[in-house]
Amino acid sequence: MQTTTVDVPTGDGVADAYLVRPDGDGPFPAVLVFTDAFGLRQGVARMAETIAARGYLVLVPNLLYRSGRAPLVDLSAFADAERRGSLFEQLRPMMQLLTPEVVARDTAAYLDFLAGQPGVAPGPAAIAGYCMGGMNAVRAIEAHPDRIAAAAAFHAGRLVTDAPDSPHLAVGSVTGELYFGHADQDPSMTAEQIATLEKTLDAAGVTYRSEIYPGAAHGYTQSDTPMYDERATERHWVALFDLLDRTFRSCTG
User: Fold this and answer.
1) Which among 2, 113, 185, 198 is least buried, having the fewest CB atoms inside 10 angstroms?
2) How confident is the model at residue 85 (pLDDT cuts 50, 70, 90)?
3) What is d(CA 170, CA 175) in angstroms, rounded to the nearest whole number?
4) In 211-227, which positions are buried (b, 16+ CB within 10 angstroms) versus exposed (e)?
5) Cα separation of 53 and 68, whole Å?
6) Is 218 a catalytic residue?
7) What is the DSSP string of 7-70?
8) Of these residues, 131, 155, 182, 229, which one is catalytic?
9) How far apart are CA 4 and CA 244, in angstroms?
């Protein structure tokens, strides 16, 4: 397996990213990974390598590249619960730049980059998103239903809001499959919001699975944070690979 840092050209600049290539010649189905707000770091690279080890070509872009190359904040402090809040406040204005239109535009660039890689399997990609990246993964498949066959969102917040561009309002465009792994201790995605999301998905006829991870906090898959939950993370891997393997069965055998 080979993990490299690459530069992905976009309409608004250049996004630094991890590209993880499995051993062999392929063809490798393409998987995008959208990170939490803290972005590219060793723990994220390890997660991408876990996915690539199953035979997938993985791209993990720095979603906040407009604000600079990763790391955008002092990552030595973000495992500290008391200091984490101040770091998040630094990131908030950067996150607000990711409007639905921007996410759609960036995702097209990421997909184009993946499609141009040697050994990549033809056809649609899949996407997995975490925290902020989970919400934007949903926006990505809504914007590109013909290019993304499946999306998984883990401990994703703000999927349902009162805003006119709330992510849940556009799920009717999705033609692929969705998976949601909700943390049940997550104030950014309450039980009421989850119920609203599921009702909207049902009404739109979207194929999906929505599951609650008992006792898990927002960020439960991130091993370098205080919210990490090993049991919930293992469950997330089972769910993610079930989705990916079913989506790309013809490629992975």
Assistant:
1) 2
2) confident
3) 12
4) eebeebbbbbbbbebeb
5) 29
6) yes
7) EEEETTEEEEEEEEE-SSS--B-EEEEE--TT-S-HHHHHHHHHHHTTT-EEEEE-TTGGG-SS
8) 131
9) 23
Strand order of the β-sheet with 57-61 is: 2-10, 13-21, 57-61, 30-34, 125-130, 148-154, 177-185, 207-217
Contact (Cβ atoms closer than 8 angstroms) between residue 218 and residue 157: yes
Instruction: Quote the pLDDT of residue 250.
Output: 55
Fold of the CATH domain 2-252: Rossmann fold (3.40.50)
The DSSP symbol for 154 reads E
- pLDDT tens digits, residue range 24-37? 998 999 999 999 99
Catalytic residue among 36, 186, 229, 236: 186
Helix (H) or strand (E) holding 140: helix 132-143
User: In the chain, where are the structural domains located?
Assistant: 2-252
Q: Is residue 83 left, alpha or beta, with left meaning phi > 0 and alpha meaning psi from -120 to 50?
A: alpha
Region for residue 234 given its phi and psi (left: phi exceeds 0; alpha: psi -120 to 50; beta: otherwise): alpha
Q: What is the pLDDT of residues 40-81, one digit of tens each?
A: 999 999 999 999 999 999 999 999 999 999 999 888 776 676
Residue 197 φ then ψ, to 5° = -60, -50
Mean pLDDT of the chain: 94
Tell me the two tokens of residue 2: 């080979």
Place of tokens 């006829």: 205
Query: 186 an active-site residue?
Result: yes
Q: Answer yes or no: pTM beyond 0.90.
A: yes
Buried b (16+ CB within 10 A) or exposed e, 129-161: bbbbbbbbbbbbbbbbbebbbbbbbbbbbbbbb
Task: List the Cα angle 183/208/62 in 5-degree steps.
Answer: 60
User: Residues 155, 218, 229, 236: which is the catalytic one?
Assistant: 218
